[in-house]
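ENTRY TYPE: paired fold submission
RECORD: A
CONTENT: sequence, then structure tokens
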Amino acid sequence: MVKKTFATIALAVLAVLAVPAAANAAGYVPADDVVVSGTIAPGATVAVAFTDGAFTPGESVSFAVTGSGTATLSAVKAATVSLTKSATSAGAASVNVALPADATGTYTTTATGLTSGTVGTAAITLPTADAGAGSSATDGGLASTGYDAPMLAIWAAAGALLLGVALMVVLTVVRRQRANA
């Protein structure tokens, strides 16, 4: 009975820890490899560049921009636009995003490598009219509401908790068997 209980607990722990691996199957471009340059303002053109090694060299990269209003992506103008370009021999790719004159909110540029499946995103957020320059949580801007703990620490804590529960179950079963013997 102890072996069955232990095997069940071990399978449960493995199932919990193995599920997140499926979400990591696609490649993602790290935020450090995405460069947004230019003045972020209504009517301005912003360059979004994915640095060397972001994509497979020479592969076709599909760009898409979504946001409120009508954005222009290199030469295409629509509410949600897409364009396909080739990555350089070093794996870099870039696109120019022309923001509309009445642009507000956030425009998200997504680049997807059509061969590698690698996905990179860049958010172009226009400041609100009343935000002023340099708005942050310390000077009256919005406070951070996310949780910034590293995922490894969270999974380690969850694993330690599950191992503790498993130990308690095993000790309880052993104690009952000794009491009945």
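RECORD: B
CONTENT: sequence, then structure tokens
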Amino acid sequence: MNGLYDSLTVIFIFPLIIYIGANGKNKSKLTNKICAFLGDISYPLYIIHFPFIYLYCAWVFDNNITISQGIWVGTGLLIGTLLISYLSLRL
């Protein structure tokens, strides 16, 4: 059943989501700028995020870090990864 669910999702639901997103229209300049920024930064973020996630997960598992201990490092990692992605995009 899981294979059937996955197949139907890929065949019907994902194209529907893309269709809905492609037909949306932005009416304000601010929304257009935000969408353009998110579209521009998505590829650099995609390229560099995995090594940072891998290092963070290794640190958490090796040191038995709890959520309350690791949340600040994770938040800093998120901000740092976004910053590196932005710098990669601009430079």
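NOTES ON RECORD B: Helices lie at 2-23, 29-63, 67-90. The first helix runs from residue 2 to 23.
STATUS: closed
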